[in-house]
Amino acid sequence: MILHYFDPAGWEDWGLAERPLLRVGMPVLIDDDLLFEDESGVRPAVAMNRWLRELPVSGAPAPKTWLTYAQVLKGWSEFLTDRGIGVFDERARVRSGLSMYAEYRLSGPLEARWAAGSWNLAVNTLAAFYRWTQTEGYVQDLPFSFVRQSITRPDGMRPEINRNLAAVRGAKPHARRRYLEQPYAELLLHALAGNDPDGAPDPTFRGRETGRNAAVIGLALATGLRLTEFTYLTVFEVPPLPGRRTDVPIPLVLAPPTTKGSKGRATWIDYEALARTQDYIAWDRSVTVDGSRWMPDDPLVVEDPTGRGARINGSFRRWHTLTPAERVRLVCPGGGSGLLAVRAGGGPFLDWATVLRRTAARIRERFEPGFPHVHPHVMRHSFAMATLERLVRGYYRQAARVELDTGGDDAMALYLTKADPRLVLRELLGHSSAAVTQVYLHLIDTQRIYRDAYTAVGMAPAAQDEARAEFDDSEV
């Protein structure tokens, strides 16, 4: 089976009356003989493609999700075909195929073997597909079995779910560090800058682009941006540094095409991280892009840029309308890429996973053997933990009151004096539900945070005892 990604370029020459109703980049599955039907009728690939096409309006708007689901369907279909079983065969035969597939993926050849998480993703994807096919009349009975059970969410709610019995239980990663506490976050930034844990230059360091790496990863730590969001952030979208230092964070608006689900959102960045980013823009980056001859295929030449937009190839465009594919083709007026992070020669830099992996390995070798393996999404989790702690302790609220008391008319300050910490964090992270944000409360040591906060404001002894009892009860 062939996995193709739809591109409408040149559709006028395909002999069609109108453009196919497919989104750009949508995966399309095609049998090896390039046929969608034969003497037996319409083939299963037609139903698979229908289901994939509906994903953007069925709760799965991210292109990466479409690709993952298409790959699952492709592997499943090929496995069944090789064993003479049809995707929409009799239920007993499909269940037998599923049993063989479990053996193949969980204990089969090493090159085909999956971890429990990958297997569970596959069978839950297939279950969703078969539920859809049952609704659409392709099959009568589902090949999967389910059981109703209650789960306890971090917020204490106990919803009932249908658990797929084909899924397997994996070991719980008790020792896996999902975020960096402040000392480790500072150690990472020092190492990215080519320094030792005390901030002094590391004489053994032989890397380059220290200003860029420390600035951009520092921005990710201070904003909670996802990898795509900070990788494709343009230099023009970075907010200007306020005229005076402030403890109230500065808003950072994100373009919908770069966010998950293209929903768009706004987060914030603290003064120190923004100052570090602006220093990189003014010094390291400007030297790199000045007079750069880098030029992509089909360039988008920027003229007269502002914080809102620019003339691009002669027409005014706002930054929030540009997709990642367009952003990577931006060429600044003085040369070089329009992205915030650039590599030597002025082209865009995109490989942050490698930067973090190598830096973490160097930290373990040189300074801290227990330093965890770090990937870009850890920056987002670390932001959530640090921000929640500051919100709970009232740091931002106190800073906002000082801002207002000194005559400031700042909307962010006014907002921080009134908003609930969990709702603030939800909006900063762009979660669609407060229940998702509640997971972070489950991960962090909230008991320590609240206990420290109560002590700091001088609770009465009786109130302290009551609070301690509440914490002790919850621990039991």
List the keywords:
alpha+beta; disordered C terminus; single chain; two-stranded antiparallel sheet; four-stranded mixed β-sheet; 17 helices; 476 residues
The strand order across the widest sheet is 11-10-9-12
Number of strand segments? 12
Q: Report the uncertain regions.
A: 457-476
Helix content: 40-55%
What is the 3D form?
globular
Overall average pLDDT? 86
Largest sheet: 4 strands, mixed
Strand content: 5-15%
The assigned structural class equals alpha+beta
Radius of gyration over all CA atoms, rounded: 26 Å
Structure summarized in a few sentences:
The protein is built from 17 helices and 12 strands. With 476 residues, it is of the alpha+beta class. The C terminus is likely disordered.
Give structural notes.
- With 476 residues, the chain is α+β, with helices and mostly antiparallel strands.
- The chain is built from 17 helices and 12 strands.
- α6 packs across α11, α11 packs antiparallel against α14 and α16 runs antiparallel to α17.
- The relative contact order is 0.08.
- The C terminus is likely disordered.
